[in-house]
């Protein structure tokens, strides 16, 4: 039984008979063992596996916990437990109810949002501030969905950003049109999954006897109300307020802080025995985090008592001296590469370390910057694949046609709608068997100056200019080619799109689909566009060596995606895995380069936390945009508690490129690694003045 391996505190939590339990599990105190023990306790006391819901921060964490349950109760029992992220569980339930659900990542739906935004003009409004751009407005709206439970978007925006009140009506109308388009095409983003699932929970009893929530400190208002809507007979929440680091994504530390107020009969269990870090490492972490207000009392006890190496401060005169020196230290250490992590607060820090390691031929893998699945070349293949499976996915079409020279998201959307018009509701019919009696498939734009809508549609053009491009005769007859803004290059892009999907028809194996896409003229063009952009120098010239290297990297990603497709025999399962599971997949081997957020939940023998300069870590710019020093301090706590045995904290005094001097991070002073001087006292006074304001 998993209970036999628990210490006294873990056992008390796992076997609690209270209906509402909060487990404060600090870094390295065995929260996973406690959760697995709790599930074992439930199963041994007559609760069926399908009556247990386990909500985790990543699908990987859910899979690991279920695998540990399987060791004791068998795979047949463990696989019946409903486990996954809030989004994965919501998606599974919604898909059961409606097969037409099409999930889109937040970043992808920005393309659709921009197609609406780009039709608007703000030039007729005389305001002291500049209107938001499309991408930023999308982020504002996403934050609204995660945090606001009562007000409509326009009212919330005026209250939150009063300087944008003159634009608020247009912003709100853009959002309304965007939501109408999503509904028309069946698109759901990650916020929509939770919103729709919450409504389902309010109306239906899903049959859960207990809901377990991992990383409870990182739940946001929307996730909190989803748990409320489930209203399970028993609730078991595990978290640590000192590791709440997702405020930028709407996470509300007040949710874990108010647990006992919300549930007066709740029992709070505190796990105090740390099994990960040495005494000196944990002592340093505690010194710093204790500057934050204590929500629940706790004092950690170290179980690994031995003559441990104290954390070491590395100070460098110049920024890049730091990166090269750390790379050299990693080269010379006896610690296996996979047991080493370099943790950074800002992506620019990771770039410097990565260059230093590559120069010494030290392999490394990076997580927390641009992931494999966010690479445009990978997204392009998946967009093409998605259209093959679901031609109604307008967003994938728009995203692809933005690669064609001169075609923006608004124009791509018009092309898609025109093809659907020609095909009487089917984009592919409009492409391969258009109704040629429809002379003008393009919709007339509506006018509304108050909402920033102006008419700029042109007369239809002639197709004669494409006569020498070698298009198929059947394709040349398509009325879509009369689109007035088409150039020879954008028309060729559409023709290659036409040829590719004709060749893909009837292919069943995902790996073959991926290979065919990668070999197509259309994808070769997309690859060339991306490689050229990545090799373009500041003076506008293209470095051919850089372009060759960029094409080589794109090719490697194509081959990796083909490898990922091999185990799958169904289109839907492959695409769902790529969309929902992509954030949990990593590539490469060697030293781990991790953002603080990506390091959460992981542990390494040897850890370097870099660029600990005031302004960088804590990141003062992000603090000014709604962050806080408390949040930055929690990030520091998470970073240093990833280390088991060896911890290095480093900073530089000067950046010769930017000609900028640095002060040590406030956290180095708080940790006692740098003597508190006048500079530190001035820093603290400045913070106190800000708090008073």
Plain-language structure description:
- The structure is a single chain.
- The chain has four domains: 2-98 and 192-271, P-loop containing nucleotide triphosphate hydrolases (Rossmann fold), CATH 3.40.50.300; 105-188; 301-363 and 589-692, Rossmann fold (3-Layer(aba) Sandwich), CATH 3.40.50; 374-405 and 457-580, Orthogonal Bundle (PCRA, domain 4), CATH 1.10.486.
- Helix content is 48%, strand content 11%.
- The protein contains 31 helices and 18 strands.
- The chain has a six-stranded parallel beta sheet. The protein has a six-stranded parallel beta sheet with strand order 11-16-15-12-14-13. The protein has a two-stranded parallel sheet with strand order 4-5.
- The mean pLDDT is 85.
Proportion of residues in extended strands: 5-15%
- How far do the termini sit from each other? 55 Å
How many discrete domains?
4
The low-confidence runs, each spanning 5 or more residues with pLDDT under 50, are none
What is the CATH architecture descriptor of the largest domain?
3-Layer(aba) Sandwich
Structural class per helix/strand content? alpha/beta
Please tally the helical runs, counting DSSP H or I stretches of 4 or more residues. 31
As a percent range, the share of helical residues equals 40-55%
CATH superfamily of the largest domain: P-loop containing nucleotide triphosphate hydrolases
Biggest sheet, spatial arrangement of strands:
3-2-6-7-1-8
